[in-house]
Amino acid sequence: MQILTYPHYTLRYKSKPVTRVDAALRKLVAEMFDLMYEASGVGLAGNQVDLPLRLFVVNMAVEQGEGEELVFINPVLSHLKGNEEADEGCLSLPELYGNVVRAKQVHVQAYNLRGEEFSADLDGLSARVIQHENDHLDGVLFIDRMTTAGKLAMRESLEEFELEQKSLRDLGQLESDQEIELRLAEWVQKYCQPSE
Ligand code: ZN
User: Fold this and answer.
1) pLDDT tens digit sequence for 76-95
2) Catalytic residue among 133, 159, 179, 196
3) In this predicted structure, what is the pLDDT of residue 194?
4) Among 162, 190, 196, which residue's Cα sits nearest to residue 25?
5) Residue 40 Cα to ligand 1 middle (Å)
6) Least CB-packed of 75, 106, 138, 155 within 10 Å?
7) ∠ CA 81-124-47 to the nearest 5 degrees?
8) Which residues lie below 8 Å from residue 58, measured CB to CB, with a gap of 6+?
9) Rounded to the nearest whole angstrom, what is the distance from the C-alpha of residue 41 to the centroid of ligand 1?
10) Sequence-distant contacts of 144-152: CB under 8 A, at least 24 apart
11) Per-block average pLDDT, block size 10, for the chain (196 residues)?
12) Measured distance CA(22)–CA(35) in Å, rounded
């Protein structure tokens, strides 16, 4: 498992609701936490590790062993209130930062790995993180939410990422979008089947 970088196909995939949690999925989630700590992140979404599933992990403390490890499965955001602009970054867009307007407060309802429903009212940084991660599940990146001026300022850096992906493809070191799509479909088949 590794953290995918822009403009990887899976980052634009609209993830599917999870209907099954098993030991293998719990192990994948544990690996997501490890990767997130390695990268000094506070959140990591399924898409970012090539999983087309509606789940993300969060630990506002950044450090392993501190804070609270939270897993959000099939999250639903509601009661978004207020507006706040702040600098944002993303583990899939290393070293890029930009101002993004987000709701100040948000209510989130989700399931944990034991299948238990939980909900929380968040504000400040945690509200921002939840909105950022939830966007990932819809294939949305923070660069999509920047102002036109912000997007323009970032254009050159994004082109560098795009060129890098193209050269990996040319070297045969990255699958085609079709191959990726087939693999994602296998995950969906395994974890997103409607229950009987
Ligand atoms: Zn991100």
Assistant:
1) 999 999 999 999 999 999 99
2) 133
3) 81
4) 190
5) 12
6) 155
7) 90
8) 42, 43, 69, 70, 72, 126, 129, 130, 133
9) 9
10) 145/100, 145/101, 145/102, 146/98, 146/99, 146/100, 147/99, 150/98, 150/99
11) 97 97 97 97 97 98 92 98 96 95 98 96 97 98 93 94 95 93 97 82
12) 20
**C-alpha of residue 90 to centroid of ligand 1, in Å:** 4
Residues in the chain: 196
Query: Could you confirm whether 133 is annotated as catalytic?
Result: yes
